[in-house]
Request: fold
Amino acid sequence: WLFLDLLTDQDRDSIHCDVIAAATRSSSVGQALLAVLFHTGLHALVCYRVGHRLWQQKRTGLAYYLQSTVSKHYSADIHPACRMGQGIYLCTSAGVVIGETATVGDDVSILHGVTLGGTGKETGDRHPKVASGAILKDSATVLGNIPIGSGAIVTAKAIVTKPVPPLAIVSGVPAKIIGKRDLSEEAFQDDLERHLAFKYLDEWRALDDEPEND
Reply:
């Protein structure tokens, strides 16, 4: 209850969507109550949202303390200054690193071991910008102030250092485009993707129909 007054209506909506994401995108959870009680990824997200409000109120020392505590207990290092949308799914908090100037759009799925970091050669705005509906699979690493387009998929253990277009599938070290997301309704049957068809499929099909620039 100590930090409850810090949270805005937007935060409460975001946490509500995060709970739904944890319950529906993980076959091992399946229920909102189990997610609230036991899902470490959800716990880390809620703590981030509190820390983010502390950061915005210039209470940076307390925000850093909360970040450190979450890192110790959940093995997730999420900077309180980064910006994250609603309906985020952290498969598990273990090994997740999200840098200070990173942004994560709505309905993004982040599996364990994902890093959204800097290259070490930049200052200021130096972390990735992940658009809505993207999927970052196990141990994927995205480095630098680069965009990951809406609906893009970064496969497991890929290391991304260049912009990823919307709907692209990238893989490898360094990551290269290996394909494009299938936009048929039958392709959205996986736990990580079923929710995306309802919200984004029409938008993505329209995007896919646009002519490419030379």
Q: What stands out?
A: Residues 9-25 form the longest helix (17 residues). The CA atoms of residues 19 and 36 lie 7 Å apart. The chain has a mean pLDDT of 91.
